[in-house]
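Quick check before the chapter quiz. The format below is the same one you will see on the exam, so make sure you can read both the input and the output lines.
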Amino acid sequence: MIRRSTPAIVFATRSGGTTIDQDAFGGNPFATALIQLTGAEPIPLRQFPRRLRALTVRASQRHQVPQWTRWPEQLSWSFRLRPGSRQERRCALVLIVSEYAGAGLAPLVGAANDERRISAMLGANGFSVEQGVAPGRAALLGALASFSRLALEHDAAVVYCTGHGVERNGQVYLLPGDYPLKQGCSPATLRARAVAVDRIAAACCASKLNLVFFAGCRTLAAKMSANIGLSQPTAARVSSRRRG
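Here is the expected output.
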């Protein structure tokens, strides 16, 4: 029986924080930092989260401070394949929710741009990339189920996901495009109509390495509920729009 690596989750911002939808490169500063870091020289995994955090903090002008959970033991692994290194089996899922018209919210243009940017970055680093631009919850869950089966056949699996996010009782949720915002963000509604990041992480079940990058907000549920029906606020210094 193969013992599979526990997924590590990297969040684009701290607990309770929001993320920026559009920076100078047209997307989330977290995505911009990830692309920059993986395009450099091979970086051992043990150094990766701290360097990603430093780049994101700088790109977002300190608006976003990434956090992460349980870090893998494969500390010599790197995104960038070393010259002459053996090609391992790598797969990735880029899961994007950018349309929230049913909730009366403006589209997340930066999230849509990041789908293309992140997919290109992963492909350049040897990943077979699945793209899940799926607005509804059923489609999101279907994409995760399909990717889970694919990941079982690979050595390394990565999921990059973004959209509006909510945090409640320590659990972070991705809100699908058909999430009923008018019903609020109670624990029961989130469990039934949103998708927990832990559930997304469970789809990462490759044999050696599993990583999840969540680029959405971690806005407190009470704050999100209070802003139901409002258009997206004007973003801070580096952005035209925030997620949240």
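If your answer matched, good. The first helix runs from residue 29 to 38.
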